[in-house]
Design brief:
Number of domains: 2
CATH class of the largest domain: Mainly Alpha
Number of helices: 7
Radius of gyration: 19 Å
Largest sheet: none
């Protein structure tokens, strides 16, 4: 797919893809970001994709993006509620929170040093709660590749955090 073909596809479908995203999540900015991500992915994978039903592919991608967004939103809300409950029951909340924040910050720093694909797979698995099958489907890679990236990330993070704790 060349630049002109991509531009034609974008102009034909961006509004419909935005509508799919927006109608599912009812938030303008995240819907715009999803559309941008979908078309960015399409452009980046233009040499390997063999599209026969472009509109169907884009609508499916939009539905997957909104599902992922809603799932992550629910997971974030559950996590926040859980952290809030824990902080109310903790006797030494301030000290624990400082340690937790420091560890979380360091973990995020270590995650950012992972190779890009490894980092994406790790975040989708551990932060967004997606299954290996869902990750493989969203990233168009095999489940075996997902397992490899998660194992690699965990091994690297274990080593990095062990060094950090000593």
């Amino acid at each position: 797919m060349d630049e002109h073909a991509f531009e034609t596809i974008y102009n034909l479908y961006w509004e419909k893809i935005y509508a799919v995203c927006y109608n599912n999540i009812r938030e303008m900015e995240p819907a715009r970001e999803m559309v941008q991500d979908i078309f960015k992915s399409l452009w980046e994978r233009r040499d390997t994709l063999e599209l026969t039903a472009t509109e169907h592919y884009l609508v499916r991608a939009a539905k997957l993006k909104t599902f992922e967004y809603l799932r992550n939103k629910v997971a974030r809300e559950k996590h926040l509620a859980q952290v809030t409950r824990r902080s109310h029951t903790s006797t030494n909340c301030t000290e624990e929170q400082v340690i937790f924040n420091s560890l979380t910050e360091q973990l995020n720093t270590f995650v950012e040093t992972l190779p890009r694909q490894c980092q994406r797979v790790y975040r989708m698995s551990r932060e967004q709660g997606l299954s290996n099958r869902e990750i493989a489907s969203l990233l168009f890679i095999s489940e075996r590749a997902v397992e490899y990236h998660i194992s690699r990330a965990l091994k690297t993070l274990r080593t990095s955090l062990a060094d950090f704790m000593h």
